[in-house]
Amino acid sequence: MNKEIQELVDKGEMLPLMEEFYTIQGEGFHKGTAAYFIRVGGCDVGCHWCDVKESWNADLHPPTDIAKIVENAKKYSDTIVITGGEPLTWDMTALTTQLKTEGLQVHIETSGAYKLTGVWDWICLSPKKMKLPTKEVYENAHELKVIVYNKDDFRFAEEQAAKVNKDCILYLQPEWSKRDKVVPEIVDYVMANPKWKVSLQTHKYLNIP
């Protein structure tokens, strides 16, 4: 990558775009909503069960001008979801400002491990044990979505719930490959602890991206 492009990436005026697609939001509070997803490459959080590991290496994904990303996004939906990878690896200020100028609702799905940048209508925080969220993301999250892979994740979920703001909606979501085992455990846990809700990856049941 040449120096000029690197400077634009560092400013968030270009971003390593892995893919962009129009689909139905399958998870969390906005499940069932038509949304345009912008998947940004780059992540060093390293969840072993990640289903988009090809997003981790930002160098594999071409730096793309954010004006082009915004132009594509506004053709499809009023709701834009920025995901990754870990989108907060990059400065999200320029991209989200342009999206908001177009009158769009801008959501993020993040581990919260990096500085919170950007202008957001909805922050979905999905924390990971390997790299915990920043205080600012805890304070601003609209929903907390903890992935349940094994029983220790219930302990972790409670630790995380104690750190978010009082209005944050709490979700437990089964890791897809373990769903047959952990779904009954999540159901029992939510019934015993009704401050939590169940989140399912409904897009996978619908067989859509």
Automatic annotation (TrEMBL):
The keyword Ligase does not apply. S-adenosyl-L-methionine binds at residues 49-51, 85, 126-128. It catalyses: 6-carboxy-5,6,7,8-tetrahydropterin + H(+) = 7-carboxy-7-carbaguanine + NH4(+). Keywords: 4Fe-4S, Iron, Iron-sulfur, Lyase, Magnesium, Metal-binding, Queuosine biosynthesis, S-adenosyl-L-methionine. InterPro entries: 7-CO-7-deazaguanine_synth-like (IPR024924), Aldolase_TIM (IPR013785), rSAM (IPR007197), rSAM_sf (IPR058240). Residues 30-209 form the Radical SAM core domain. Its EC number is 4.3.99.3. Its cofactor is Mg(2+); S-adenosyl-L-methionine; [4Fe-4S] cluster. Substrate binds at residues 24-26, 39, 83, 209. The keyword Lipid biosynthesis does not apply. Catalyzes the complex heterocyclic radical-mediated conversion of 6-carboxy-5,6,7,8-tetrahydropterin (CPH4) to 7-carboxy-7-deazaguanine (CDG), a step common to the biosynthetic pathways of all 7-deazapurine-containing compounds. PANTHER family: 7-CARBOXY-7-DEAZAGUANINE SYNTHASE. Belongs to the radical SAM superfamily. 7-carboxy-7-deazaguanine synthase family. Homodimer. This is 7-carboxy-7-deazaguanine synthase. It comes from Thalassobellus suaedae. The lineage of its organism: Bacteria, Pseudomonadati, Bacteroidota, Flavobacteriia, Flavobacteriales.
